Amino acid sequence: MTTTPSAADLRGRLAPLYAPPREPVLVDIPELGWLMVDGTGSPAGEGAAEPTGFQQAIGALYPVLYTLKFRLKRTGTVVPVLPLEALWFTADDGSFDVSAPAAAWRWRALIAVPDGITLGLVEETVSEVRRKRGSFPALESVRWERWREGRAAQVMHVGPYREEAPTIQRLHAFIAAQGLRPRGAHHEIYLGDPRRSAPERLRTVLRQPVSED
């Protein structure tokens, strides 16, 4: 595989989408390739002896991504390491009920990858990670898909994840004021590392796809 403009500049193309203001705005999300893992339940699991399913998904996505990165570096292909993202929903239509218990949450952890990444390449990379680290459920659930989120509203939330509710309310009020309605899953993009950043300094893009009908 050779370097393509889409691979080399993916970070630059997506940078504006990762830096919204602290007041909601409308954006259009293009079709992209993604590494994905689906699961259910609360992401945190405070005090739990074992990692949550969401934490295990992160522990599978990054080894696959970094293995892709170093594998393709030898061929001149650039694979940027972009932020972790997640879709959160509680209903079959993809909508998210914030009042639902965390055990009922469903999620999709995902990371964007360049257009040159293919299903076959991801399957080969998962096999390589398996040979090095052994098999584990989240690794076997890693898949590649192309997906276009389309028109959405988004806003930057600064602070702890548990204090997102007022920012989400402002986002949904903005959507209603534009004559639009929420469509699909609540989307979060994690720009900070909670292991290294103080909770009050964490930055999270909160995104909600929208529809006119």
Secondary structure layout plus pairing:
Layout: H1 5-8, H2 10-14, E1 25-40, H3 53-73, E2 84-89, E3 106-113, H4 119-133, H5 137-141, E4 143-158, H6 165-177, E5 181-182, E6 186-190, E7 203-211
Antiparallel strand pairs: 1-3, 1-4, 2-3, 2-6, 4-7, 5-7, 6-7
Helix pairs in contact: 3-4
Provide a compact summary of the structure.
This protein is α+β, with helices and mostly antiparallel strands and 213 residues long. 30% of the residues lie in helices and 29% in strands.
Query: Which outline best applies?
Result: globular
Strand order of the largest sheet: 1-3-2-6-7-4
Classified in CATH, the superfamily is: Regulatory factor, effector binding domain
Q: Main sheet?
A: 6 strands, antiparallel, barrel
Using the coordinates shown, work out and report the CATH topology: Multidrug-efflux Transporter 1 Regulator Bmrr, Chain A
Q: Tell me the helix content.
A: 25-40%
Q: Which percent band covers the strand fraction?
A: 25-35%
Whole-number mean pLDDT: 91
Q: Report low-confidence residues grouped into runs of 5 or more.
A: 1-5
CATH architectural category: Alpha-Beta Barrel
Assign the structural class, choosing from mainly alpha, mainly beta, alpha/beta, alpha+beta, or little secondary structure.
alpha+beta
How many runs of DSSP E, i.e. beta strands? 7
Give Rg in angstroms.
17 Å
The number of domains: 1
Given the structure, what is the number of helices?
6
